[in-house]
Amino acid sequence: MKKALCITLVLLTLFLSACTGRGTLEETDANAPVSVEDKRTTAAATAKIGATSPLTGREVLKPAAFKVNDPENARGLSTQKIEHSYGVAKNGEPHDISKSAQKYFESTGYKVFCYDTNSTEKVLYLTFDCGWENGCTDKVLDILKEKQVPAAFFCTLDHIKSSPELIARMINEGHIVGNHSAKHPNFAEISRQRMADEILECDNYLRENFGYSTTFFRFPEGAYSENALELVNSMGYTTAFWSCAYADWDVNAAKGGDYAFEKVTSRLHPGAVVLLHSVSPDNAEALDDIIDWAKQNGYVFKALSEYKF
After folding, report:
1. Nearest Cα residue to 217 out of 253, 164, 248, 180
2. pTM of this prediction?
3. Active site residues per annotation
């Protein structure tokens, strides 16, 4: 009996690894391994429930609460860490790694995806991960406003607290401010209760200071487990991974706008969820041309909220 159980666990691990297989560095280095905390101390002041947020003009929302189901994971959902990988898309086609990952996500029945397999349009979903501010986000927002392109900004709580005016601008200009957790921990290595607390802390700060809440979540480091997927799904969140990205988070390795333009446009494909980092000056420099190129080649930018399961 024990031997059969061990064999079953090994096979499950191999299956999950194949679904989200890790490949070369270029395929797996797109998501920053940690957030660098912004050291500024500016923060929004919490308003009373029913009052108007001075940052967004929205009515302050009541804090959310959530009781974790099966907090000890008595069901034995797998806690095996999976690091999302996407592969380098070429010739307008997602990489086989992305295809395998998407098939796995669809097989779970959870609200999670890395690219759109349902749309008949050449749709793109533009997303940014935001762990700290490097002076580039205002330019990114200026371009998105001029080009009338929606985006999702997945922000950590540290970033939200240190850059309240930027967060308010994202909200007021119609973008999604996605939940990227409070402290950016690896969700495959923490308890179900800690996962819920990380998400709630970030969400409640947005509710209480910006009159805003979201149902979109992105795992820190792109690391998760079956246990984590189930917990996040049980909280009513949709998890957005990605199928198009490049190593853009290291600001000390900037290579210029032309480099960013080539990397991103060469990897676009219909249905792509594009991951960029808002700290990158290369992205800010190239974004205008990336959007123009995509539109000229028949792509349509949509908000994550338009994704249909």
Report:
1. 180
2. 0.87
3. 129, 277
Kindly give the confidence (pLDDT) of every residue in the chain, 309 residues in length, as a single tens digit, with 9 standing for 90 and above.
444 444 444 434 444 444 444 444 344 456 655 444 443 334 444 557 779 999 999 999 999 999 999 999 999 999 999 999 999 999 999 999 999 999 999 999 999 999 999 999 999 999 999 999 999 999 999 999 999 999 999 999 999 999 999 999 999 999 999 999 999 999 999 999 999 999 999 999 999 999 999 999 999 999 999 999 999 999 999 999 999 999 999 989 999 999 999 999 999 999 999 999 999 999 999 999 999 999 999 999 999 999 999
Residue pair 81/223 in contact (Cβ under 8 Å)? The answer is yes
User: Among 163, 142, 116, 172, which residue's Cα sits nearest to residue 305?
Assistant: 116
Using an 8 Å Cβ cutoff, are 278 and 128 in contact? yes
Q: How far from 173 is each of 19, 32, 153, 177, CA to CA, in Å?
A: 37, 26, 12, 11
- Alpha carbon distance 45, 37 (integer Å): 20
Domains of the chain: 95-309 (3.20.20.370)
